[in-house]
Design brief:
Length: 97
């Protein structure tokens, strides 16, 4: 709980808002409670860079089709598209307090 002030200060400086993205705690939360997941897509994932950042990207269009550009074949990965946000935040705050 004590480290949260440092994160809040960091994002205040970086984004101008005192917020904390919860992607890392959410990954742990889903491992503990897979029922938090309410939607997903399965498909190949590639790491794609834009010269500045590199991100893992699902190689599927919103229709579930492969993209029009060339990509590396990869085994299917489950990519979460939605979670029970309210329940996750409630559980996360409860665990910290």
């Amino acid at each position: 709980m004590e480290i949260l002030d440092s994160y809040l200060d960091f994002y205040q400086n970086e984004w101008g808002r005192r917020i904390i993205p919860l992607h890392d705690p959410l990954a742990a939360g889903v491992l503990l409670d897979p029922g938090l997941v309410t939607g997903w897509i399965d498909g190949p994932v590639n790491v794609v860079g834009d010269g500045f950042l590199s991100r893992a990207r699902l190689m599927r269009t919103s229709d579930g089709l492969p993209p029009a550009f060339q990509y590396e074949k990869a085994p299917d990965t489950r990519v979460l598209t939605s979670v029970d946000t309210a329940r996750f935040v409630r559980n996360f705050v409860g665990a910290l307090s």
